[in-house]
Amino acid sequence: MLTPLPAEDWDDQAREALSSTVPPERRRPDKVGNALSTLVRHPVLAGAFLPFNTYLQKDSTLPERIRELVILRTAFHHGCVYEWGHHSAMARRVGLSEADVEAARSGSATDEFDQAVLDAVDELHAGSRISAGVWERLGQRLDDRQRMDLMFTFGGYSTLAFALNTFDVQLEDGAGSDEFYATLAN
């Protein structure tokens, strides 16, 4: 439905919309990927949303491993191929095993705490709230701020999934591989 903004249409406003997310040398259509190149079609919206998304991905109080488990389960629920493709690779880089990634897909983890995380995402998706029992289970390892970050990670990545799915943003060739991320970094 929406394609990435063509390179010839990029302007200072499009590049500025990415300022909270990517360093200046990467604010180019060939360096930010299809999602960000599509979001900058509306630079004011992108400039407002991306700092929040950056917080969720980089500054959240959630441990990285738990954050990626939440994002993967969220991507699964929304059928978001783009999020799944990128975050399954990120998840592996922060310590999730293949079995952990599969648990995010199936909703069934062997680790009791991971199961509480998956249950929390499932409850948010199904009923827009975390039950008292699951909230308590999460509290065995997460404090109140971390549990709040878990909820907002689900919400932020759900919003992003809605956009990526609606705009039909295509996963880049090679996404999910270390080589792909190395080319973006250079």
Automatic annotation (TrEMBL):
One of its GO terms (molecular function) is peroxiredoxin activity. SUPFAM superfamilies: AhpD-like (SSF69118). Residues 1-31 are annotated as: Disordered. InterPro entries: AhpD-like, CMD-like. Residues 45-122 form the Carboxymuconolactone decarboxylase-like domain. PANTHER family: 4-CARBOXYMUCONOLACTONE DECARBOXYLASE FAMILY PROTEIN (AFU_ORTHOLOGUE AFUA_6G11590), CARBOXYMUCONOLACTONE DECARBOXYLASE-LIKE DOMAIN-CONTAINING PROTEIN. This is Carboxymuconolactone decarboxylase family protein. It comes from Mycolicibacterium peregrinum (Mycobacterium peregrinum).
